Request: fold
Amino acid sequence: MLQMKKNQILLLILCLCSTVFACDGKGKEVPTLQVEKKKLTVMTYNIHHGAPEGSEVVNLENIANTLKAKNPDLIALQEVDVNVPRSGKVNQAQKLAELLGMEYFFSKSIDYQGGEYGVAVLSKFPISNKRRIELPMPTSGEKRSVALVSVNLGEGVSLEFGSTHLDLNVPNRTAQAIQLNALGMEANKPMMIAADYNAEVNTSELQEMQKVFSFSCKNGCPNSFPVRNPTKAIDLVASNKKSSDTFGLMSAVALTGSYASDHLPVLVVYNY
Reply:
């Protein structure tokens, strides 16, 4: 009986050891390290200057609460007011950054009502190299821009992260997609551009972008517009090849039940 117990204990030890050690090819056991991958959560959200669908009553706290609910690492915002009378002359990018405890950068697309209107990025991580990039407009329309920053994720990992909002008409969107492709190819590091693209991935302009970028469509692209009963997947995150090689797409969902704007926010999760 004693010998049987000793054998059982020995077998248990061997089983435990087999989960920690592997052979080096010469019969020797060497430790194996299983490194757990980190997650990067990215949100893109057209906030409609803080007003719900069909309303001009601005409630930036509702936008902040929607963002807080999923605690994303990086956020791309579109339709952001800065010092515009309709939204109380508030710097919405700065205010949201303060409410969320994040860094921010705003890029003006147009002057509006004595203030500015455009896109912004928010980040939990340190950001640098903040720049505004104006997008081409071969035909008349509302001027568009990209808010682009360098993000330091720590441990030698960095990322170029941008927010933009493409135009409503196809010629302008196509020219803007080509310009984004140029940015993606010129980057010497991973780049993500999160946006309201005003187009779905099967359109000619976003097919053009897919020469350089891949989109955040895991088991399909999440419908995000209109906010109630959404039928269009136009709020997306695009990753250039270096980004796709570094960050693995895990999931992408539109956050239904979030009615602070006229779009649903889209949350995309990567690992690296």
